[in-house]
Each structure stands twice: as C-alpha cells, then as structure tokens.
Amino acid sequence: MRSPQQRLGLTQTQRLSLNTSLQASIALLRTDAAGLTRYLEEQAAENPNLRLEPPPDPALQEWLPRWTSVLSAPHAGSELAADMVGYGPSLFAHVSQAIAALALPSHAHRIAIALADALEPSGWLGTAPESVAADLGVSLPDLITVLAKLQRIEPVGLFARNLAECLRLQAIDGGVYDAAMAAILDNLDLLASGDLARLARLCNLTEAQVQARFRLIRSMNPKPGAEFAPISAAAVREPDLVVQQTASGWTIALNRSALPALRVEAVGNGTAAGLAAAKSLERMVEARNTTVLMVGREILQRQQDAMQHGPAALAPMTMADLAEALGFHESTISRVVAGTSLDTPRGTWWLRQMFSPALGGNGAPRVAAAALRHRLVRLIAAEDPADPLSDQALLAELARETGVTLARRTIAKYREAQGIPSAHRRKRSHSVPPFGTKGRG
Predict the structure, then answer these.
(1) Is pTM, for the whole model, over 0.70?
(2) pLDDT in the model for residue 85
(3) Which residues, 6 or more positions from 259, have their beta carbon under 8 angstroms from its beta carbon?
(4) Helix 330-337 with 4-29: angle, nearest 10 deg
C-alpha cells in the first residue's frame, strides 16, 4: 500500500505530465506548417523513437491554387486585373515611396512614375515598355535602365513584364537561378501542361532536375502585387490549407507538401518513456491537423462567395460563430487561425483576416467590415487619377453599393489604414507629393 507521501508525489507527477502535454497541444494549435516542421525536427533529434519522412514531392501538375490564373495567362499582367481589383492603391503607395527613396534624377523619376502607373494589381507591367517610352517621348534604352532599378524593389517580382520574368527575378534573388532554371522558365507552357518527358528532353535535363526546379518554382509568388491586400499571406511559400473549386463544388485539404510524415518506432536505444512521448506527440499532431481542417471547412462553408468573387464578398463572421458551430471554445478557434494560411485561386490568405464583424442591420443589409474596406480600396483603384473621390464621395458610393452608410471618419480611418492619402494628395502629377506620402485624411 502506497504511503500518503507516495500518492501525493504520483499525483503531482501526473498533473505535471498532463499540464506539459496540454501546453504542447495548445502550442501545436498555434503553429503553422513551417513552425510545426521545425518543432518535429527538434523532437526527432532528441527522441530516437521518432522518425520524420520529408513531405512528398508534388507531381508536376500539382500547382497550388494561386497559380490558376497566371498559368492560363502567362504573358501579360492585364488579364489578372479582374481577379485582383482593389489591390492597386496600396501597391502604388508602396512603389511610390520606394521610388522616392531611390532619389532618381528628374528625367529618370518621370519614367519611374510612368512605369508605376502602368502596374497591374498583380505587380506586373500592364503596358509594354515600348508603349510607355513612346508615350513619354523617351528612348527605350533609358526606360529599360530605370526599369532595372525598379525591379529591385521589394517584394521581388514587381515590375516584371510577364510571368517568366517575374519568376526569373525571384530565382536570381533566391540564389537558385542556374542554366536548368533558365531553360525551364523559357518553356513555362510545357511545365504548366505537365509534359515532363518533353520538357526534360528539350531542356537537356533529367526528369529529376525538372522536378527539383518545379518544386522551387511552385513555392514562388506569381503575383507579388497581391501582397498589398490586407488579407494576403502571399509571402507564405507553402500554405497550411488548400482550397480548390471542382465540378462538384469547393474542396479544402491540408497541404501535405508542407508537412513531413511522422513515424513512431520502438528502437533498441530508446526508452519506455521516450516511446510514450513519441506516441503522445503523434496523437497531438493528428489532433492539431484534424482541428485545423475542421476550422478550415467551416470557414469555407461560410465564405464561398469570397472564394468566388474575392475579399470584397467576405461575409460577416466571428470566432464566436465558429466556436458555437463546431463545439469548440473561442480560444481554440483563435489559436488555430493565429498563423494559418489558406491557398485559393485568388491568392494565399490568412485565416485570421477573414473574420470580420457585421456592419449595418436595423433595416440595412448586414455587411462585413472587411468587405467594406476592400470595396473602398476597389473604388479608389477605379477612380480617375485626375479627379480622385473625396471621402464624402466614397461614403456615398459605398452606401449605394451596399446599403450601409458609414461615418466619414470611418472612411478616412479605413483609407489611412491602407496607406492611401486623401483625395487632393492622390492626384498623380509632379506638382504634388508622391502617392505614397501620408496625408492628413
């Protein structure tokens, strides 16, 4: 029979073990795919009962959904504008600030601003350099010299003339541009179609070399301008979840290409405690993945219009809504979406940024605040640069579109949060400060 002291010690040990396990489970819920991979690598290095297998290489035609539009229109940025309407003003603000920092001579500055005006929301040039040079009355070599400087602006890939150049700039920046990569980027149509044998033969490469470059290309950002949408997670190379539209509707799945496979094995140099810890970790990872997928499915169910039409169609949604629907605590939802990203045909989004309370009601339509912010940016993107919309005019247009009337100070707050100055400072002429300069609202 155990003594009271032994029972107390056993109880304390069990509680400590439970608390440690609970803390680890909570930590895993907050961890994205990249962080989970690092954590598992650390655990496997310490525990011989754990074995990690690298993520499977994607098949040649397993492009992430964000590639859908660019692979169908790889040679010009303008075809992508419909998918990304509303990202323009924040993008222009960013590049204008970067151009100002370059301190270019007046002749080069004039060219740079014209090239910035030619940017599509994708971040590509929507007008051929030859046309821009002709409109400005400058030589094409002078313009190309300025363009080369602008192509150094972060994020890498801005000011590309087409998809191949966008990817080439990123490959050079990442130190992975070699003869094999150059050959593949010259034959993107074959890569997009998945014709591995022909592509390898044409580029004088092995199929393994093509596969290795494909994985690098797949992780790049084909639309760097998309990073300027508040919901965007475009810098994420491998998202946690993948959403696709099929003939039978929308589907969502874990991105297995981002996660290593975890195996638990009893080994001779392991201990019983180590084996138990390995099995516990395996269960926690399975629980984390299941929970992330459940939350992702519920979000997809509520936000199919946004998947179809973009962030301006986001529906009102709170974490309390999801917690009630799934039978979770609201803190669980908060942890799951903290750093989780979702790859969609319209780009890579943060789950957390898809939550937004409703505005309106009392006889007016209920519209998500996030949707109104995106509609505001879209209106500014479509305005006449010579006659920008005032905050009062923006307020009226939003009310006409949505039925929701906001206060003018709310319009100003939304606008300033995007780095978009007031109307009189948005006039794109040399007599006013660059577009990226903060206005007073």
Answers:
(1) yes
(2) 46
(3) 33, 36, 37, 55, 289
(4) 50
Rounded to 5 degrees, what are φ and ψ at 53?
-110, 135
Domains along the chain with CATH numbers: 19-57+239-354 (no CATH), 65-228 (no CATH), 358-425 (1.10.10.60)
Q: Which of 311, 283, 317 is nearest to 298 (CA)?
A: 317
Residues 254 and 36 sit within 8 Å (Cβ to Cβ): no
Strand partners for 328: none
User: What are the residues facing 347 on neighbouring strands?
Assistant: 344
Nearest CA-CA partner of 89 in 378, 409, 309: 378
Q: Does position 76 have pLDDT exceeding 50, yes or no? A: yes
Distance of alpha carbon 135 from the chain centroid: 35
Q: Are 94 and 423 in contact, with CB atoms under 8 Å apart?
A: no
Predicted confidence (pLDDT) per residue in 291-340, tens digit: 999 999 999 999 999 998 888 889 999 999 999 999 999 999 999 998 89
CA 70 to chain CA mean position, Å? 15
Separation of alpha carbons 349 and 234, rounded Å: 7
Maximum average pLDDT range among 82-96, 256-270, 279-293: 279-293
Other C-beta atoms within 10 Å of 259: how many?
21
Q: What is the chain's length?
A: 441
